[in-house]
Every structure is written in structure tokens, then in C-alpha cells.
From TrEMBL, chain A:
Family that this chain belongs to: Belongs to the binding-protein-dependent transport system permease family. HisMQ subfamily.
CDD domains: TM_PBP2 (cd06261)
Locations listed in the record: Cell membrane
Species this chain originates from: Mariniplasma anaerobium
Annotated InterPro entries: AA_ABC_transptr_permease_3TM (IPR010065), ArtM/GltK/GlnP/TcyL/YhdX-like (IPR043429), MetI-like (IPR000515), MetI-like_sf (IPR035906)
Keywords assigned by UniProt, alphabetized: Amino-acid transport, Cell membrane, Membrane, Transmembrane, Transmembrane helix, Transport
Top-level taxon in the UniProt lineage: Bacteria
Lineage: Bacteria, Bacillati, Mycoplasmatota, Mollicutes, Acholeplasmatales
NCBIfam families per record: HEQRo_perm_3TM
Annotated protein name in UniProt: Amino acid ABC transporter permease
From TrEMBL, chain B:
Domain Solute-binding protein family 3/N-terminal: 38-266
Protein name, entry field: Amino acid ABC transporter
Organism in which the protein naturally occurs: Mariniplasma anaerobium
Superkingdom as given in the UniProt entry: Bacteria
Position of the signal peptide: 1-23
One Pfam family this sequence matches: SBP_bac_3
Keywords: Signal
Amino acid sequence: MIIFLNFSFLFDWYSLSLLLQGLMLTLILAFLAVVFGSILALIPAFMRLSKNKFISSPAVFYVEIIRGTPMLVQVLLIYQILNIPLFLIGGMDMGSFIPGLVALLINSSAYISEIIRGGILAVDKGQTEAARSLGLSQGQTMFKVVLPQAIKNIFPSLGNEFVTIIKETSIFMYLGIAELMYQVGIIKSSSPAVTELYIVAGLLYLALTFPLSKLMNRVERRLRYADQR
Amino acid sequence: MKKFLLVLSIGFILILANGCSNSSNVFEFILDESYDDFVTMATSADYPPYENIVQGDDGKNTVVGVDIEIAKAIANRLNKNLRVVHKGFDFLVEDVRSGKIDFIIAGITPTPSRKEIIDFSKSYYTEESILQVVLVHKDNVDLYQSIEDLNQTTVRVGAQTGSIQQEFAEIFTPNATAKIIQDLKELLNNLDNKQIDALFTEDEVATTQMNSGYEDFVKIYLDSLEGYEGNAVGVQKGNTELLNTINEVIDDLLADGSITTWLDEFSLS
């Protein structure tokens, strides 16, 4: 099959500006999800580390449910549960933006909590024993000794999660949140260049994720600097 | 490297400043300065000539189409301005049910299962005004001359999920392999690439698409079906006051021929 590609829509300022605006919102959404998701993720992560079954099992339950169900189901369900009336902030319909963001936060927090837990567990037990025998309290041990070292383990996977979230934001097109795939949908409805549009959309996502993973590699190398002997 | 990043970020800021309004899925129409309230209508604007998002005269996105004109007429009758929300088709019925929006016009056919959730107005497209067609690629026109030729297991037919055309595909071509998806544009593209052999849609939609890039299609007209209801406006269950007003507006628009005029106008652009 021969396909004649026609990228003329890229020279149309209107289409191009729609795509770039969508790209921007995608990045903003993913950034919000990772930053606030990481903060939220500390709760289930520490709950799961607890030895008390009544504290750890709800966290296990939460993480398993979120990880075991598709993002689309979560978005649809949260949209139904959080019945927010239509109101506008900056031209954006918060009635669909807020449920979307909440779903994304919940989703990313579950994944990140596992990353954090893994990072903490990977810190050598001798560190805790040494800190405790030096007279540090349990809290001090965690926040002054274990967690700083855990961050080094967490960082590479966190970058990975950021990349995943960037790609997953494409679900929001259904909610009418104007991220990249929504804008693609608008251009698509009045242009026959569908294949070309998908190629450009893919490249734009790549333009976000590729520099990001490169940047993450750099930061990671900086963090590992002290490990080299 | 730093200079490049600087240029890149300035570019982004300019784009954002240029038109943040284009990242909105809500479109407001001020019909009359004296109206101080809004009536909210929801649609899934990827279905020209009925509803479609285009660049407006002021450079910003706007939504146009026959359904939008009907919504304006309804809003005018209510002495309110119009606010149009664009969303995925799946969310529309739910939004009306929960009262988040006042009514939906999105080429929705009142099926029994939808009637359980929301109320429908009378149909605003009569059976005479909307003809149902099957599109085939012009290269295959010798193979598929009538609807009977399509009723074979080797034929792949397409239709939109939840649409009346999905039912037509099941009735007219039960032996064919059906590809039922939400996205009309995807189906049109599949037909263009010959990934499907035929596409069930309606005449006005087919005309609009053939006028805007898909020249290679040929229409086969379908016989009208008994008991087929046209598209209708959906409102929250029990909201008879609004429903009565909408029915009045539809009667007037059908009587003075406005809907036919709009159909001709928007299927050409």
C-alpha cells in the first residue's frame, strides 16, 4: 500500500498553534500529576512499610486496585462520583478538569508509592542499625539517614513514571480537556490528513519524553557521583 | 544550548499568550446583550455538518453546524445566551442525567436504553430530510453495486458505535464483518485506505466529507426503515418545561424550512 503523505497542515499557523498549546497542557498536566502525586504517594508508601497490619493492608488494597484497573475506568468512575458543576477558570471547564486531574493524581500516586517503597527497602539495613545504635530515633533515622539515600534509588524510576504519565494524559481528550490528543481531534475533524496528523502527534510526544529521559539520566549521574570510587 | 532553550521557552510563552482561549472546550455565544443568563448545551463536535470546531473570524476556536443553529434558536426562545460544551460522546448522556448541562444536541438517536436515562424531544430531522447511505471506494464500485453485494463474509463494513447506522449495518449486512468504532474520521480513513469496504453513514455527513477531501467515495442509498426515529434533543428526565419549549422551537424550525437551509449551507463549507 502506498500512502502519499501530506504535511501541509504543519504550515498552517492555526493547526500548529493548536498542537503546541495541546503539548503545553499535556506537559503541565503530567508535571502536576508527578509533583503532587509524589507527595501523595508518601502516605501509602509509609503505610505499607508499617508492621501494623491495620495500617499496611489498606495501602496494599489501594495500590493493588489502582494498579490493577485501567486508567480509562478510573477516569470514568471518578467523573461520575465527583459530580462537579460546570464552571470556568481561564476558559477551562473545571467540571471536567478537576475529576481528570484527581484521577491522574490517584493513578500516579499509587505507582509512585511503590517506587518510593522499593527505594526505601533497597537502602542497606545496616544503615538503619547503625543510625539506631548511634541514638537516633526511628523518625530521625528515616528522614535523616534512610530517605536521603532512598531518593537516589527512587529517581530513575520516577523519571520513568513521568514519561508514562505524559503518555497517559491522552485519555483526557474524552473529557474535553484540551491536551495534545484533543487538539489532534479538532484538526482531524476538518482535515483528511489523518495518518500525517498521528505521525506528528507521536513525534510531539517523543519531543517531550525523549529530552526528559535524557535529563533524568543526567540528574541520576550527578546523584551517583559520590558512589564512584 | 542555553540560548536554544531560551528561544524555545520564549516561543512557548508567546504561543500561550497568543491564544490560551483555544485550550477551552466551552464556547460562549452572546445572542443578545440584554440576556444575562446562559443555557448550556453539550455536544461532541466532530460531526460536520451537524457540529464541528473551526477557526472563527477572531482567530479563536468556535463551534459551527446545524445543531448549533438549533441550539441558538432554543436559547433565543428561552431569552438566554448559549454556552456549548464539547466532550466525548460517552459523557454527554451522563452530563444531562446529572443536570450538569441543560440539553444535548449531538445527532443522538432516541434508543430505548437512552430513553430510560433521559427524555427526548421530537425528532428534528424527518425521514425525508435525512437519507441513509453506504459509502464505498470508487475503485470497488463494480464489485459493490447494491447493498446485497455487501452482505458477504469477506466484506468489512464500518459504522459508528451507538449510532443508528450500527443498527443498519446489522440489519442490511448481517453476514459482513462489522467494524464498529466511535471515531467517524478513523472509519473514513479506513475506507480511503481500503481497510474496510463500506461505511454506513448519513447522506449529509457523507456529502460534507466528500466536499472536504474524500473525493474517492461513491454513495449507495438505502431504503428507509420502518419505525426509525431521527435525531432528537436530550434533556434531563422530568424537565417537561424545557422539553415543551424545545418541541415548540423544533416545530417552528421545521415549518419555516430553516433546518433544510442550514443543512445545505453547512454541508458545502
